[in-house]
Design a protein that fits this description.
Largest sheet: none
Number of helices: 4
Order of helices and strands: HHHH
Helix content: over 70%
Distance between the termini: 43 Å
């Protein structure tokens, strides 16, 4: 009987790791879809729809959460380091925001841009805060 329980734990650990990898692939795919949708509006949403792409991500997150709680999988937290990739992603997001504001009025842009900047600043401080609470 202990071998069977050990086998179940090994299979659950394997499924947990594969689901984490699948989540990474789905998020990268979702980012690519969002970029394509922003550059050429309607290229994806007219055929598939973003909800059909979002639903598998939510299902995988739910499965990861379920397996993690059921089998008590934990992992150590890694420190996030500021890197050139973070700078590149920030520039990419700013470019996407500027493309999405192309047909807005100047007043709307004057409200949206500072609000977006403050939200990004809040998340930056939240992610890279050095004090643990």
């Amino acid at each position: 009987m202990p071998e069977n329980n050990s086998q179940k734990n090994n299979l659950a650990a394997l499924a947990y790791k594969l689901l984490n990898d699948a989540l990474l692939v789905l998020i990268i795919f979702y980012l690519a879809v969002l970029i394509a949708e922003n550059v050429i509006p309607g290229i994806i949403s007219s055929h598939i729809g973003l909800t059909k792409i979002t639903l598998p991500i939510l299902i995988v997150i739910a499965a990861i959460s379920y397996l993690g709680k059921k089998y008590n999988f934990t992992f150590r937290e890694n420190e996030m380091k500021k890197s050139k990739l973070l700078l590149a992603l920030t520039i990419l997001f700013l470019l996407l925001i500027s493309l999405s504001l192309f047909k807005f009025s100047m007043i709307a842009i004057a409200v949206i841009v500072p609000a977006t900047f403050l939200i990004f600043l809040y998340f930056y401080k939240l992610i890279f805060s050095s004090d643990s609470q």
